[in-house]
Structure formats: C-alpha cells, structure tokens
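Protein data sheet
==================
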Amino acid sequence: MLATASGAITHLGSSSLLVPLSALYATALWRRHSAPLALRWLLALAVCLGAMVVLKLVGHGCGLPEPPLFPALFAGDRFISPSGHAAFSAVFYGSVAALAARDAGSPWLRLGLPAAAALLVLAIAASRVAVSAHSGAEVMAGLLVGGLSVLLFLWTSRKDGAPRLRASPAVLALLLLGLALLVHAGDPSFVEGAIRKVAHQLGSGAGLCAVAGLPTPGHPG
C-alpha cells in the first residue's frame, strides 16, 4: 500500500508531467499577463534545470563532495545525483502557488496555497527516498536548488501582479484527463540514463573533473 502510494506521488514530480505543465503555464502567463512575466518564469525554470544537469554530470562523472548542509544528519548518505523530481516539483508547484497567493483575495488562500504546495513538494521528495531512487541528501540538494529558483522567480517578478487565469469547464476536463494519462504513463528514466552516459565519458577523460576541481573516479584526489 505504501509502495503504491509512493509510486503514485513520485510521478507528480516527473518530467513527463511537469514539462508539458510548465509549457502550459508559460503560455498562460504570456496570454493572461505579459511576455516578460512568462520569460521570467522560463528563466527561473532554466536556472533550476540547468543547475541540476550540471550537478548530475559532476556527480556521476566525478562524485560530489559531502553535502554542504546538515552533514551530521546525512552522514553516510549517497550523494551522487541530486533529485531532479524534488527540484522540478519545488520550482513548478512553488512558483505557481506563490504567484497565485500574491494577489489572492482571501488571507486563507494567501497562506493555504503556499502551504499546500510545500506539503505536495515534501511528499514528492519523501517518495523519492521511499522508492529508493535517491538518498535524503540528494533529495535535500534538489529541494535547495528548486527553492532558490522559486525565490529567483519571485524576486524578478516582484512588481508583477498575479495573472487571472480562466478556462472553460471543457478545457479543464481535457487538461485533467491529459494529466491523468501522463501520470499513468509512468516516469521515463532516459534523461537520467543519458546524463549518466555523458558524465561517464566526460569524467573518464578527466576534463569534467578538472573543471569541477574534483578527482577523476579511480584516481586519488
């Protein structure tokens, strides 16, 4: 039962779900508010995903140093590939909730939307540990990158109001159906596999590790 629930929750942070959702959100921001706001959201997303790709390349190719935060708490944890699910879900759900709460008419919504997003992101992060995809340290690193990306989006868009997003019931029904199908389709692992292969090639040539200032695997540092 717990494994089934964790598997369902973890798909809510999958790129197969969040990539199309991010594209829809950027389009909605562009049409309902302004192009600059949409571009600021895409910038924050690009910073988040770009940082995760770099960390994963270095981690798989050279290995990462000890977790910078709470080393005693994560002592002995694997720290090779920070969780992309944690980072992506944090930047997406966090940005959407924070921007929606900014101009919410009810104080309950201003508090409730970010709180609900935080609980969802934490559930996704915990599910990555539960399904043995990542360690606690790797999940924490992903949450840190995603959280900082949310702050970047909010800081760059601090003078923008929240857009009024409206959709017909038919559009909402089709969207929910599409999201259900995406979640049911599962979580493709080709992205992580491709990063691992590229990292191995770069690391074996010592170029990546030299730039990162880390020892090449198999060689003393």
